[in-house]
Write a structure and sequence with these properties.
451 residues; alpha/beta; Aspartate Aminotransferase, domain 2; Aspartate Aminotransferase, domain 1; seven-stranded mixed beta sheet; 17 helices; 12% strand; binds pyridoxal-5'-phosphate
Length: 451
Amino acid sequence: MHVHDQQAHDLMELVFAFTAERMAMDPPPLDFSVPFAELQAQAGQTITAEGLGGTEVMRLFEEVLGPACLSIDHPRYLSFIPAAPTEAATLFDLIVSATSIYGGSWLEGSGSVYAENQTLRWLADLAGLPDGAGGTFVSGGSIANLSALAVARTVWRDVDPAREERRPLVLLSSAAHSSNAAALALLDLRSQPVEVDGADRMTAAALRTALDSLTDAERESVCAVVATAGLTNTGTVDDLSAAAEAAAELGAWFHVDGAYGGAALCSTTRRHLFAGIERADSLTIDPHKWLFAPYDCAAILYREPRLAKRTFTQHAGYLDVLTETDDWSPSDYAPHLSRRARGLPTWFSLAVHGTDAYRDAIDITIATTEAATEVIRATDHLELVTEPELSVIVFRRTGWDRDQYWAWSEQLLADQIGFVVPTTWRGETVLRLCITNPRTTLDDVRACLPD
Ligand SMILES: *Cc1c(COP(=O)(O)O)cnc(C)c1O
C-alpha cells in the first residue's frame, strides 16, 4: 500500500497550484449545473482498481467536475444564501485538513477547542448571552436546530418522569425554516403554529393569540418556543422579545434560529432588530452563511451548556478518559463524536482581521441591499413584495407568470451573468436576492434584474 506517499509531492504541487489559481480568480466563473448523462459521458467511472493517477484525476476535476459545481462565492450568485469565505478562512481550512486535528475532545485537541471556544464566545457576546454560555460548531443550521430542540425535549421531560411517554409541543411560526419541521419529525415533537404578519414575522399579538388558544394541558406540554432571527425567504426578524416572554410564561425553552440572520448582530444599523435574543436558551448562527466561512460551519450555543451535555454525552468504556473529567469536549454538545475542527477557519480569519472588519463587511452587504432596494423601488416594472430588513430582497416583475420567471432565471445562468432563482410568496412566483458577499456591488445586482 502506497496510498499515503505515492506521488505525494506531485500531488501537492497540483493541488496547491489549482488552489492558488482558483483563489486568485476575481471573480471565478459562475459555472453550471450539468445533467447526469453529460457528466457520465465526460467523467465516466472515476474509481478503479488501479487508480487513474493524480494528473488525470486533477484534470477530470478541473475540466469536468469542478465546472459542474456553481461558484457560490461568485458576487452575482444571489440565490438561496450565498457564501463568501475570506481568503484567510479558506486557507486555514487547508491547515485543518493537513494537521488532522481531532475536534471532538479537549484531550486530543485542546488548542483547537480553545480557539473554537473563543470564536463561540464572540458570537455569545454579540448576542448578549451570559458568561457560562457555550456550545460547538456543527455541520449546519439544520443540525444546530435539531440539537437545540433535542435539549429542550430533555429538559422538559426531566421535570417529571411521567413525561417520558408524552409528545411535547413546540410553538413556532408557519414561516420558520424547514429544518425545524424536520427536527420536530425526527424528535417526535408536535408543532403549534403561530400566525405571521404581512412580512412573515411572528409578532407579539400573534404569540398572544397562540398562547390564549392553548388549553391548560397544551400549555404544560410546550417544551420550546422557536423564533427566527432572519427568515431565509424574506430576511424578516421575528419579535424576539415577545417570543422570549411567551417562553417564560410557559416555562419553556427559548430557541432562536439565527442561522442566516444572526450574523447581523455585528451590524451597526440592524442590531436593534435582535432585542430579546439575549434571553435565548439556545441560538443557531451559521458562519458558512453570512460570516465569511467555508462550508461547513454552524454554531449552536446554549445558555446552560450542561443541559446539552446531559443530552448528548456518549458513554463507553473506551471513552471514559474523556467523559470522566471536567474538560470541555465539543463532542458533548451535539449529536456527534468525531468531528472536524470546523470552527477554526472562522477563528483564524477573526483573529487575523479583527472583529471590526467583520462588522464593516456586514455593513457593506446591508448598504448594497439598501441601494439595490432603492433601484427596484424606482423601476416601473419591478415591485417590492416585502420591505427588506436584513440582506434579502423579495420582489416581483409585474406581468410575469411562473414560466417567465423560470425561463429568465435559466437564461441568466446560461449566459453566465448571474444566479438568481425564483421563490414562492403566498403561492405566487416572485424573485428573491440575497446579498451576503461584500464583493457584490450595486452594478452586480443591476445586472441581475429583469428588464
Ligand atoms: C439555512 C437555514 C437553516 C439551515 O441551515 P443549514 O446550514 O443549511 O443546515 C436553518 N434556519 C435558517 C433560518 C436558515 O436560513
